Amino acid sequence: MTLVGLRVLREVAERGTFTAAADALGYTQSAVSRQMAALEQATGARLFDRHAGGVRLTGPGRALLRHTVVALDALEAADREFRGAEEVERGRVRLGFFPTAGAVIVPRALATLRQEHPHIQVTTREATTPSLVRALRAGSLDLAILSSRPPHRSPDTDDPPLRVEPLLEVHLAVAVPTDSPFADRGSAGVAEIAREPWIASPGSADEPLLGVWPGLPGRPTVRHTARDWLTKLHLVAAGAGITTATPALLPVVPPGVSLVPVEGVAEEVRRVSLVRMPGPLKAPTQALARTLRRQAADLAD
Hints:
Elements: H1 3-15, H2 18-25, H3 29-43, E1 48-51, E2 54-57, H4 59-82, H5 86-89, E3 92-97, H6 105-116, E4 121-126, H7 129-138, E5 143-148, E6 163-171, E7 173-177, H8 181-185, E8 188-189, H9 190-194, E9 197-200, E10 221-225, H10 229-237, E11 243-245, E12 257-260, E13 262-263, E14 269-276, H11 283-300
Parallel strand pairs: 3-4, 3-5, 8-13, 9-10
Antiparallel strand pairs: 1-2, 5-14, 6-14, 7-11, 7-12
Helix pairs in contact: 1-2, 1-3, 1-4, 1-7, 2-3, 6-11
């Protein structure tokens, strides 16, 4: 086994495909394939299962990844120490989150943390749930804020099981222009919104289409696509369509947008959870986790 091979293994485990890993590392896809073939030959085990959407670690692959993360982290710590950066890096925390969390809970938590613990450096990443889970297991994230629908299963079934801590539950609503009949009435019927143009995130193999009410009859018309939730809300304000949102976004909802419940269907509940790998947390990570809990409690109130 080589260090290059282990670094490629971690990148493939995080990205989910050889192509994405090659792009991140600046390699060709064939070079990544050769490194993984050499690593499988060295270990005598199949490390990945191939499927239509990419690759997934096997049991031996997950076991090797756990040791790889420890080994590469130790080497990186040694490199920082030799460069005199140990003290600066000691307070580093890496946080991932789903898009809506980046509008309210994450900025507030970081502002509070900066006041109370100015020595802690937080780096953040917004991504889909599968991407964030892979990053946790690859050791490139310390914490992740994820959203789930009932029955709120663990975000993956790999070993060891992830630690999932619920932070708050929110009810899905529809964001509509304030001059619309829905805003005047204070609610919207499911048959009515099925006929409306929608503003949604681009769909992907990782994540279903976000921004369209789940289970609508027929085939909803998606008129506009945007990944950023504030962009979606500004498009709603411009009268371009409607989108789903939660009351947690109220502090940042732009003028011209109202959030209304949907009638005629069961409530759509979303749980926001703090997710991490099992094991003890370093003090900076604990401090960020405490701050996120407090911000979630404030939003719940």
